[in-house]
Automatic annotation (TrEMBL):
One of its GO terms (molecular function) is L-tyrosine-2-oxoglutarate transaminase activity. Its cofactor is pyridoxal 5'-phosphate. The keyword Transferase applies. It comes from Amphiplicatus metriothermophilus. This is Aspartate aminotransferase. InterPro entries: Aminotransferase_I/II_large, Asp_trans, PyrdxlP-dep_Trfase, PyrdxlP-dep_Trfase_major, PyrdxlP-dep_Trfase_small. Coiled coil: none annotated. GO terms for cellular component: cytosol. Keywords: Aminotransferase, Pyridoxal phosphate, Transferase. It holds the Pfam family Aminotran_1_2. PANTHER family: ASPARTATE AMINOTRANSFERASE, ASPARTATE AMINOTRANSFERASE, MITOCHONDRIAL. Belongs to the class-I pyridoxal-phosphate-dependent aminotransferase family. It comes from the Bacteria. Homodimer.
C-alpha cells in the first residue's frame, strides 16, 4: 500500500524553521513561523505561566481524564477574556464552548460542525493563513476566496470585500480574522467591522471569527471588538480562540471553540455536536495548557502579571515595526516599508516576488514564507540594517 506514495513537500510555514536551523551562516534572520521572540531572539516561557505550572505540579493528584469540554475554568476564563467582563452574552447564558487542541483544533471542530449543518460555502478574504484551507476543506466544506488586501496599495480593499460579503446569504459562512490579520497585518477598522455586522444581520450568513492573536494589536478589550459586537448584534456566531501566542503556550496546544446561539439551549446543542466531533477525532483536548490558563485567570495576582507580560510582548512587536520602517527610511529606501509601522500583530507582507523571497534567503540568509510574509518578532536592533540591505539588494539590484 505504501510502495507508490510520493512524499509531500514540507509545510510552507513550519518547514521554514528547519531550513533556518540548517543554514550554517552566522548572519541569518528568521522571519518565519509566527512565534513571539524577545530582543535576544528567544521565546521564553511567560513568568505567569511558570508560576501557574509550579502551583499545578504541587497540587496535581491525578492524571485521570479531564472532562470532554475541557479542564474546569478554562472555557469560562477564555469566554470572559473574549466576550468581556460584563458581557450581555455571558449574562444571558447565550454562549457555550469546548476546549480544543489549539486554535487549529477549534477551526477543525467548527468546520466539522458546519459540515453537519450542511453549510454552503465558507468565504474568506484573500490572502489568508494557508492552513485555513486544509482545516476547512478536509472537513468537506467548500472554501472561496474573496478580495481583502490589495498588495500593490498595501491596504485593505474594503469595497471589493464588502461587495462580495453582500452576496452571502443564509447557510453561508464568513471566516474573518479577529485581530492581527495573518498574513497581512492589515486589520479592519471599527466602521468596516460595523458594516460587516450590519450586512450579516441583513443577509443572514454566519460569521466565524478566528481570534489567534488576542491582545497583540491594541489590547484584550479593543482586539475583541469584532467578537463582542457580533455577539451583541447577531443571533449566532462561532469563534476559534488560540492561547498559543497571548499565553505563549504554543506547544501545549491550547484553544477553544466558542459558540454563541440565539438562546443558551441552541448554543448548548451546538456544543453537544462539538463534543461528539471531538470524541470522533481525538476524544478530548490535552489538559496541561488549559489548566495553566485556568490557574492564571482564577488568580487576580497571576492574571495581572500575565496582562503585563502580554502588554510587553505587544509593545515589543510594535517597537520592531517602528524600527524596521524607520531604518528603511534612514537607509534611503524611501517610504517603501513605511506602511509596516501602522499595521497590527506579528505579520506584514513585503512587496517582494517569490523570486525575490528566494534571493533574500539564498543570498542573504533572510527567511520568510514564500508569499513574503515576515514575522516582525524576528527584527531587532542587531539585524535590522542587514535586513534593509538585503531588501535593497533584491529590489534595486
Ligand atoms: C503562523 O502563521 O506562522 C502560526 O500561526 C504558526 C502556524 O501554525 O502556522
Amino acid at each position: 500500500m505504501f510502495a507508490d506514495v510520493k512524499p509531500l513537500p514540507p509545510d510552507p510555514i513550519l518547514g521554514l524553521s528547519k531550513l533556518f536551523v540548517d543554514d550554517p551562516r552566522e548572519r541569518k534572520i528568521d522571519l518565519g513561523v509566527g512565534v513571539f521572540r524577545a530582543a535576544d531572539n528567544t521565546t521564553p516561557v511567560l513568568k505567569a505561566v511558570k508560576i501557574a505550572e509550579q502551583r499545578l505540579l504541587e497540587r496535581q493528584a491525578t492524571k485521570a481524564y479531564a472532562p470532554p469540554a475541557g479542564v474546569p475554568g478554562f472555557v469560562e476564563g477564555a469566554a470572559r477574556l473574549v466576550f468581556g467582563e460584563d458581557s450581555p452574552v455571558l449574562r444571558d447564558g447565550r454562549s457555550a464552548g469546548v476546549q480544543t487542541p489549539g486554535g487549529c483544533g477549534a477551526l477543525r471542530v467548527g468546520a466539522e460542525i458546519l459540515r453537519r449543518l450542511e453549510a454552503g460555502t465558507v468565504y474568506v478574504g484573500a490572502p489568508t493563513w494557508p492552513n485555513h484551507a486544509p482545516l476547512l476543506t478536509e472537513a468537506g466544506l467548500k472554501l472561496e476566496m474573496i478580495p481583502y488586501y490589495d498588495a500593490q496599495a498595501r491596504a485593505i480593499e474594503f469595497d471589493g470585500f464588502i461587495a462580495a460579503v453582500e452576496k452571502l446569504g443564509p447557510g453561508d459562512v464568513l471566516l474573518v480574522h479577529g485581530a492581527c490579520h495573518n498574513p497581512t497585518g492589515a486589520d479592519l477598522d471599527r466602521a468596516q467591522i460595523d458594516a460587516i455586522i450590519e450586512t450579516a444581520d441583513r443577509r443572514g450568513f454566519l460569521p466565524f471569527v478566528d481570534l489567534a492573536y488576542h491582545g497583540f494589536a491594541a489590547g484584550l478589550d479593543d482586539d475583541a471588538y469584532i467578537v463582542r459586537e457580533m455577539a451583541r448584534r447577531l443571533p449566532e456566531l462561532l469563534v476559534s480562540y488560540s492561547c498559543s501566542k497571548n499565553f505563549g503556550l504554543y506547544r501545549e496546544r491550547t484553544g477553544a471553540l466558542l459558540i454563541v446561539g440565539e438562546t443558551g439551549e441552541r448554543a448548548g446543542a451546538i456544543q453537544s455536536h462539538a463534543l461528539n466531533v471531538a470524541r470522533g477525532m481525538y476524544s478530548m483536548p490535552p489538559a496541561h495548557g488549559g489548566s495553566i490558563v485556568a490557574e492564571i485567570l482564577q488568580s487576580p495576582e497571576l492574571e495581572a502579571k500575565w496582562r503585563d507580560e502580554l502588554a510587553h510582548m505587544r509593545d515589543t512587536v510594535k517597537a520592531n515595526r517602528r524600527l524596521l520602517a524607520r531604518t528603511a527610511a534612514e537607509m534611503q529606501l524611501g517610504d517603501a516599508l513605511a506602511y509596516i509601522e501602522g499595521q497590527n500583530g506579528m505579520f506584514s507582507l513585503l512587496p517582494l516576488s517569490e523570486k525575490q523571497v528566494l534571493a533574500m534567503r539564498e543570498k542573504h540568509g533572510v527567511y520568510m514564507t514564500g508569499n513574503a510574509r515576515i514575522n516582525l518578532c524576528g527584527v531587532n536592533a542587531g539585524n535590522v540594517a542587514h535586513l534593509c540591505e538585503a531588501y535593497r539588494d533584491v529590489t534595486q539590484g
